[in-house]
């Protein structure tokens, strides 16, 4: 991107962890933003939990990238409050106190809400109503999605390539021939025809 | 609805106040509140169930020749092998992503506390670096045990493995080598792993002279084979079937023991069909052998290949010379999969013995799918049909 002078924004969300590995075991340099200059790339580090800071940095990066045909690197600093995944229990490698600090003192949504409240754009009542409505919408979307059937197993063979080559046509036929012969062994009722 | 509850639990973790409108729940350490399911949700909706495993793990009889045994699952048998190694080899170190806290599959739990941070440590998220670093340690003569978090992630290290590790001895005319390097990686389908947590990449490396590739079917096999890989004076790749980490439980010897590499094991003798597999698929094939006996009166000889490279051609060819029929099965895609190599060699050696074309029951030539896994994997029904076809040829 640098040598070819491309209008690209490289956006790095630095949340402090890769599963159990904290950043000080990941690198010893000054994070990601400090690498940009090594590539001859304009770089900025921004408070990732400040929605306006991130917006402003990205807006300016976009303006300059397209105006000047050069890439920009944005490193947004934040903290991963949740576990890495549903298979992870992060209490195995970090303290609850550490997590609570970020959850309570430096949370992007809370900070935005407090700002909006202080400007008179939001209040407790609207908060309650919005949460209730949001929860309802999400639950409804879940229920609706879960009622839907899974896609047809035909689609297992598409999008491997732009076109479906002959050997995949044959494998698909083999699959259906086999599945039809052993219907009871396959959860066909969960899938679209 | 269970999926919905889990999702909202995670988002609730970021803002406790979001729980206000939810009826009573239980608070845990991180302020999570368990969501009470709405009466409309059916927790047993058929779309919710995770399918049961496609095989039943069959433990082997407790080994008696290696001393005292202890009940262990697969990840515990790996920990035991690593523990034995760190205890008796002061140069041994274990490294990789997230190994310090015990690893994403718990294979290294307790080792850092026991042996210290200089012997078991995290690396940055860089597979090329993990293997490159491991080669460097091994070249100095120390024992390097590198972990790649999922076999699916091994490709950034491919150049280091193929162009550096595999050729180190050859290109230096045996002046130097990285034989004390062992690379471990979780391998194979797991029910929900999809494209990047299910792969079986052994075929990519089978094409690379200079490395050894080993895949165990059980805890007892895993510990003995892993210890052999670590002792072996060649860089070894050890793939661990992740679906067996908890599901496979056996009595495993506590002390070190060694199962030889490049020696396939005949698990069950038979006269009509030779079945060859490795890792998880061995257990699928065990069931296929039983089905063949019960439904067709067909006697199957079951072989666990164990070492993919260099592979035990003698045992397999000797078996096929006897039975005249061969079925090879693996999860990896059929085209260019390791069954193709076995098939080619066997037809060279046993051409006149063959009663039927060699059958390969493998994954289709697509990326490992997510939602289509039950249709993709070479399950016992597909294998059984292949046996039937060969018998009736």
TrEMBL record, chain A:
SUPFAM superfamilies: Thiamin diphosphate-binding fold (THDP-binding). It comes from the Eukaryota. Coiled coil: none annotated. It catalyses: N(6)-[(R)-lipoyl]-L-lysyl-[protein] + 3-methyl-2-oxobutanoate + H(+) = N(6)-[(R)-S(8)-2-methylpropanoyldihydrolipoyl]-L-lysyl-[protein] + CO2. InterPro entries: Alpha-ketoacid_DH_E1_comp, DH_E1, THDP-binding. The keyword Oxidoreductase applies. Residues 1-153 form the Dehydrogenase E1 component domain. Keywords: Oxidoreductase, Thiamine pyrophosphate, Transit peptide. Gene3D superfamilies: 3.40.50.970. It is an enzyme of class 1 (oxidoreductase). Its cofactor is thiamine diphosphate. Its EC number is 1.2.4.4. Belongs to the BCKDHA family. Together with BCKDHB forms the heterotetrameric E1 subunit of the mitochondrial branched-chain alpha-ketoacid dehydrogenase (BCKD) complex. The BCKD complex catalyzes the multi-step oxidative decarboxylation of alpha-ketoacids derived from the branched-chain amino-acids valine, leucine and isoleucine producing CO2 and acyl-CoA which is subsequently utilized to produce energy. The E1 subunit catalyzes the first step with the decarboxylation of the alpha-ketoacid forming an enzyme-product intermediate. The branched-chain alpha-keto dehydrogenase complex catalyzes the overall conversion of alpha-keto acids to acyl-CoA and CO(2). It contains multiple copies of three enzymatic components: branched-chain alpha-keto acid decarboxylase (E1), lipoamide acyltransferase (E2) and lipoamide dehydrogenase (E3). Heterotetramer of 2 alpha/BCKDHA and 2 beta chains/BCKDHB that forms the branched-chain alpha-keto acid decarboxylase (E1) component of the BCKD complex. The branched-chain alpha-ketoacid dehydrogenase is a large complex composed of three major building blocks E1, E2 and E3. It is organized around E2, a 24-meric cubic core composed of DBT, to which are associated 6 to 12 copies of E1, and approximately 6 copies of the dehydrogenase E3, a DLD dimer. Interacts with PPM1K. This is 2-oxoisovalerate dehydrogenase subunit alpha. It comes from Huso huso (Beluga).
TrEMBL record, chain B:
The keyword Mitochondrion does not apply. The keyword Oxidoreductase applies. Its EC number is 1.2.4.4. It catalyses: N(6)-[(R)-lipoyl]-L-lysyl-[protein] + 3-methyl-2-oxobutanoate + H(+) = N(6)-[(R)-S(8)-2-methylpropanoyldihydrolipoyl]-L-lysyl-[protein] + CO2. InterPro entries: THDP-binding, Transketo_C/PFOR_II, Transketolase-like_Pyr-bd, Transketolase_C. It is an enzyme of class 1 (oxidoreductase). Residues 72-247 form the Transketolase-like pyrimidine-binding domain. It comes from the Eukaryota. Its cofactor is thiamine diphosphate. Keywords: Oxidoreductase. Pfam families: Transket_pyr (PF02779), Transketolase_C (PF02780). Signal peptide: none annotated. PANTHER family: 2-OXOISOVALERATE DEHYDROGENASE SUBUNIT BETA, MITOCHONDRIAL (PTHR42980:SF1), 2-OXOISOVALERATE DEHYDROGENASE SUBUNIT BETA-RELATED (PTHR42980). This is 3-methyl-2-oxobutanoate dehydrogenase (2-methylpropanoyl-transferring). It comes from Huso huso. The lineage of its organism: Eukaryota, Metazoa, Chordata, Craniata, Vertebrata.
């Amino acid at each position: 991107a640098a040598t070819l002078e491309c209008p690209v924004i490289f956006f790095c969300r630095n949340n402090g962890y890769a599963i159990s590995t904290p950043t000080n075991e990941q690198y010893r340099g000054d994070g990601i933003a400090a690498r940009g200059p090594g590539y001859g790339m304009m770089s900025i580090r921004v408070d990732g939990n400040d929605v306006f800071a991130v917006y402003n940095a990205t807006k300016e990066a976009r303006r300059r990238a397209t105006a000047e045909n050069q890439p920009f690197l944005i490193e947004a600093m934040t903290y991963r409050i949740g576990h890495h995944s549903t298979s992870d229990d992060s209490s195995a490698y970090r303290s609850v106190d550490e997590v609570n600090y970020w959850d309570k003192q430096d949370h992007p949504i809370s900070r935005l809400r407090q700002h909006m409240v202080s400007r008179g754009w939001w209040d407790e009542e609207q908060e309650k109503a919005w949460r209730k409505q949001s929860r309802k919408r999400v639950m409804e979307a879940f229920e609706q999605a879960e009622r839907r059937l899974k896609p047809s197993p035909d689609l297992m063979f598409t999008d491997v390539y732009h076109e479906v080559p002959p050997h995949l046509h044959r494998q698909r036929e083999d699959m259906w021939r086999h599945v039809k012969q052993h219907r009871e062994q396959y959860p066909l009722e969960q899938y679209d025809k | 609805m269970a999926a919905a509850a889990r999702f909202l639990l995670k988002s609730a973790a970021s803002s406790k106040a979001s729980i206000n409108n939810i009826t009573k729940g239980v608070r845990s350490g991180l302020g999570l509140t368990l969501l009470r399911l709405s009466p409309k949700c059916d927790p047993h909706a058929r779309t919710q169930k995770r399918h049961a495993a496609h095989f039943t793990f069959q433990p082997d009889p407790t080994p008696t020749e290696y001393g005292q045994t202890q009940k262990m699952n697969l990840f515990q048998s790996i920990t035991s092998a690593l523990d034995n190694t760190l205890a008796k080899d002061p140069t041994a170190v274990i490294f990789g992503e997230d190994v310090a806290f015990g690893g994403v599959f718990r294979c290294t739990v307790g080792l850092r506390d026991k042996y210290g941070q200089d012997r078991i440590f995290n690396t940055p998220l860089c597979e090329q670096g993990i293997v490159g670093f491991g080669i460097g340690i091994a070249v100095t003569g120390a024992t390097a045990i590198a972990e790649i978090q999922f076999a699916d992630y091994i490709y950034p290290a491919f150049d280091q493995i193929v162009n550096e590790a595999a050729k180190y001895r050859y290109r230096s005319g045996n002046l130097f080598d990285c034989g004390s390097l062992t690379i471990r990686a979780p391998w194979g389908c797991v029910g929900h792993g999809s494209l990047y947590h299910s792969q079986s990449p052994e075929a990519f490396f089978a094409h690379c002279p200079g490395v050894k590739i080993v895949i165990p079917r059980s805890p007892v096999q895993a510990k003995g084979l892993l210890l052999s890989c670590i002792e072996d004076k060649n860089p070894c790749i050890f793939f661990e079937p992740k679906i067996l980490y908890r599901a496979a439980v056996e009595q495993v010897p506590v002390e070190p023991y060694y199962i030889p590499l490049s020696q396939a094991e005949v698990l069950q003798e038979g006269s009509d069909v030779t079945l060859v597999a490795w890792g998880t698929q061995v257990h699928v094939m065990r069931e296929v052998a039983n089905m063949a006996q019960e439904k067709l009166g067909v006697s199957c000889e079951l072989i666990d290949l164990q070492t993919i490279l260099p592979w035990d051609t003698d045992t397999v060819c000797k078996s096929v010379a006897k039975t005249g029929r061969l079925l090879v099965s693996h999860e990896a895609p059929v085209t260019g999969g390791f069954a193709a190599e076995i098939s080619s060699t066997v037809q060279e050696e046993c051409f006149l013995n063959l009663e039927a074309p060699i059958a390969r029951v493998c994954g289709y030539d697509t990326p490992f799918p997510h939602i289509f896994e039950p249709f993709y994997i070479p399950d016992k029904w597909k294998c059984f049909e292949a046996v039937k076809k060969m018998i009736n040829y």
